[in-house]
Inverse folding.
């Protein structure tokens, strides 16, 4: 069969022949209908993800929509495997899949589940977010950040501060539910002042950035709080701006701030799976705006490297 095949971590996958998948006990072979090219898939294909085992060749793709032998569709999440979803067929564990209703757009589901589940699980699984609470999203212009705005609004957030870089991209975010925006590309003192003015009273930070922008945001946020003993939950979800920060000990003493993460490991596989059916239902209902770009699997090498017409697009490979 045909698949996207990585033979060296320094080059994009190529459309090539690959061995047919074989189902083990309790597994099932599905016809892949659509699989998203998420940042997590890029790090898998470059060998840089924290779960990478350096095994080559590998077929990338961590999730997708597949057709079962009975013709029905499922959204599936794969375990850490060298036999990923960007192929004509792959092997799934049915316990790590949820039904996709007939008539749903598989490309939309494949594009949105990974970025949407980052905030869906963070707010519903990692903490007990309540309507009326307020949120700051660091890295709000990407696919996951834009969905986080919509997820927070859907869950009843009273205010949603969207921080990212690029005035024109930030200007689009109020239509999704952002009540204020902060341009992280501004001068550092201006960023600090804007965060202090708009986000010092938030209950939750959804952090897709980490690195310097997160590090620089901590002090203005906690020193601007009227009551520093009021809980601030800082949920680390992505690290597009850098893998590390310097965290002064005084931060933890002078404010009631809790740092926690949300992702594979900090959320259990079972905990993640429990949250997926409700998310599929909302996506299929059209609750969230997504920007999916269907691309033939045969064009995988081009899709990997070609700049997108819009930075908000999420490429979905379709065998
Ligand atoms: N833990 C989980 O459950 C989970 C699930 C899904 C995704 N994630 C992670 O979340 C992160 C975001 O995913 P995504 O799907 O939204 O990716 P994406 O669509 O590629 O978006 C990344 C965004 O980050 C922005 N960005 C990059 N560097 C920045 C910086 N220094 N300051 C401000 N903005 C910056 C980019 O804007 P520019 O165009 O300005 O660079 C872009 O808008 C990734 O690390 C991904 O692996 C985690």
């Amino acid at each position: 069969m045909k698949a996207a095949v990585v033979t060296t971590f320094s080059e994009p996958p190529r459309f090539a022949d690959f061995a047919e998948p074989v189902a083990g006990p309790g597994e099932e072979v599905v016809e892949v209908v659509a699989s998203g090219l998420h940042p997590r898939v890029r790090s898998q294909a470059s060998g840089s993800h924290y779960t990478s085992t350096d095994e080559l060749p590998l077929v990338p793709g961590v999730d997708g929509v597949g057709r079962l032998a009975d013709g029905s569709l499922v959204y599936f999440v794969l375990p850490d495997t060298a036999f990923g979803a960007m192929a004509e067929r792959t092997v799934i564990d049915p316990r790590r899949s949820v039904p996709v209703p007939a008539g749903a757009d598989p490309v939309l589901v494949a594009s949105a589940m990974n970025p949407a589940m980052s905030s869906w699980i963070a707010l519903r699984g990692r903490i007990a977010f309540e309507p009326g609470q307020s949120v700051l999203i660091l890295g709000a212009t990407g696919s996951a950040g834009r969905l986080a705005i919509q997820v927070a609004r859907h869950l009843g957030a009273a205010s949603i501060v969207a921080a990212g870089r690029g005035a024109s991209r930030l200007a689009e975010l109020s239509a999704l539910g952002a009540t204020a925006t902060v341009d992280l590309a501004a001068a550092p003192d201006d960023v600090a002042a804007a965060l202090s003015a708009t986000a010092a009273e938030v209950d939750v930070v959804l952090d897709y950035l980490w690195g310097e922008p997160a590090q620089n945001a901590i002090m203005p946020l906690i020193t601007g709080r009227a009551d520093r003993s009021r809980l601030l939950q800082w949920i680390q979800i992505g690290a597009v701006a850098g893998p590390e920060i310097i965290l002064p000990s005084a931060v933890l003493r002078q404010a009631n701030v809790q740092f926690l993460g949300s992702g594979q490991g900090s959320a259990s596989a079972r905990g993640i799976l429990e949250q997926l059916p409700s998310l599929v239902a909302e996506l299929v209902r059209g609750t969230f705006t997504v920007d999916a770009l269907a691309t033939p699997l045969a064009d995988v090498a081009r899709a990997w490297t070609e700049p997108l017409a819009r930075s908000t697009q999420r490429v979905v490979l379709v065998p």
User: Anything to note?
Assistant: The first helix runs from residue 39 to 45. The chain has a mean pLDDT of 96. The pocket of NAP is lined by residues 38-40, 114-115, 118, 139, 141-145, 164-166, 184, 208-209, 213, 237-241, 262-263, 311 (CB under 6 Å). Residues 200 and 225 are 5 Å apart (CA to CA).
